[in-house]
Recover the amino acids of this structure.
């Protein structure tokens, strides 16, 4: 027997953690009206159906009992299908994945699972600083849709991580459009403290429970997570100094960063700590060295960046995905923060690194050509 609209509304309200009063306030009706809907002694006005579906993150078909309430299962299938067509280094494949997600939103216009994935991919495709994945011809169109999705997520999601991700997307996109007041307004919605993470707070809970092993794991994970953000900020600070012509200051920032990281990780510093393909401080250091005429040091920095991944590639024989779920470090002994990289992407990623515009002054150097040959021969 199929559920009535009242039963569906009650189930979705309960699932989303709303009281009748809270739902009523969002819709601009009385809680008595909501109670009547749920008891099937009244029906929402037709003008309230779309807002109601938006609040619950479902299609209107779900409310009317036409669609299966397993919509989220279908949504995950769409997301997985989109991910399956992505091919590293080929922007067309990512555009195809984006269009698959857009088609999914036509079927489920308010589904947050599809929308969050679509928003994140849309941001990558529409931001010029993202290198090869930047889809210049469709960037304006994608950016406009991504802004719409981000605002919808902020208004309708109850997941703080998704909301903050959406706000960060808006900061970047508003900046690229010159809407700096809007970008500043979104930036001010972020907490000023860096310790407000799930790991730091779970460490508190476990410490009170005297579960010290779990406390240590949570703290290691939090340090790991924080260091990823730290490298991102270091990369941006160095680039800021370079933009301002302060190359020696940039070099000092990067070199100090690597000194700190060497204490934490000893001989196993995860280069490109923040991300496997961006925020690589060694490449940025190479650019700063070149700007000060230190060609040999620049080449050494490029070699360190590239050889790390080549060593990884040869170490993980037979594995298709490289993961950093355990780090050999006297500080971070175990962590739940996992960064992964399909081995098939390494060669293309390294070729992209060697094609970075800021280091092309080196491309006739013997050491550079030897490095390029090593990468090109990876199989």
């Amino acid at each position: 027997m199929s559920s009535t609209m009242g039963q569906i509304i009650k189930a979705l309200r309960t699932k989303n953690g709303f009281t009748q009063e809270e739902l009523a306030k969002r819709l601009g009706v009385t809680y008595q009206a909501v109670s009547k809907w749920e008891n099937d002694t009244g029906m929402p006005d037709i003008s309230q159906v779309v807002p109601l579906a938006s609040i619950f993150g479902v299609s209107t078909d779900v409310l009317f009992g036409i669609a299966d309430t397993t919509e989220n299962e279908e949504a995950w299938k769409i997301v997985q299908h989109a991910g399956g067509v992505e091919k590293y280094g080929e922007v067309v494949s990512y555009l195809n994945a984006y269009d698959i997600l857009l088609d999914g939103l036509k079927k489920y216009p308010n589904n947050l699972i599809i929308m969050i994935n679509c928003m994140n991919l849309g941001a990558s495709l529409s931001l010029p600083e993202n290198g090869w994945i930047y889809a210049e011809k469709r960037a304006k169109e994608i950016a406009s849709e991504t802004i719409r999705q981000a605002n919808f997520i902020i208004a309708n999601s109850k997941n703080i991580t998704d909301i903050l991700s959406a706000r960060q997307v808006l900061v970047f996109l508003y900046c690229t459009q010159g809407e700096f007041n809007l970008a500043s307004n979104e930036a001010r919605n972020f907490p000023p403290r860096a310790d407000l993470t799930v790991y730091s707070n779970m460490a508190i809970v476990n410490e009170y429970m005297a579960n010290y092993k779990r406390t240590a794991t949570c703290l290691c994970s939090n340090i790991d997570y924080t260091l990823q953000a730290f490298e991102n900020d270091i990369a941006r600070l160095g680039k800021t100094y370079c933009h301002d012509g302060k190359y020696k200051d940039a070099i000092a920032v990067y070199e100090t960063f690597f000194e700190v990281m060497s204490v934490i990780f000893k001989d196993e510093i995860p280069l490109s700590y923040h991300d496997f393909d961006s925020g690589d401080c060694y490449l940025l250091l190479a650019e700063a060295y070149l700007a000060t005429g230190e060609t040999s040091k620049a080449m050494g920095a490029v070699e360190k960046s590239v050889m790390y991944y080549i060593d990884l590639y040869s170490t993980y024989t037979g594995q298709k995905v490289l993961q950093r779920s355990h780090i050999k470090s006297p500080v971070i002994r175990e962590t739940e923060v996992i960064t992964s990289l399909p081995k098939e992407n390494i060669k293309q990623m390294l070729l992209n690194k060697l094609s970075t515009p800021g280091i092309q002054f080196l491309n006739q150097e013997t050491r550079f050509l030897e490095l390029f040959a090593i990468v090109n021969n990876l199989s």
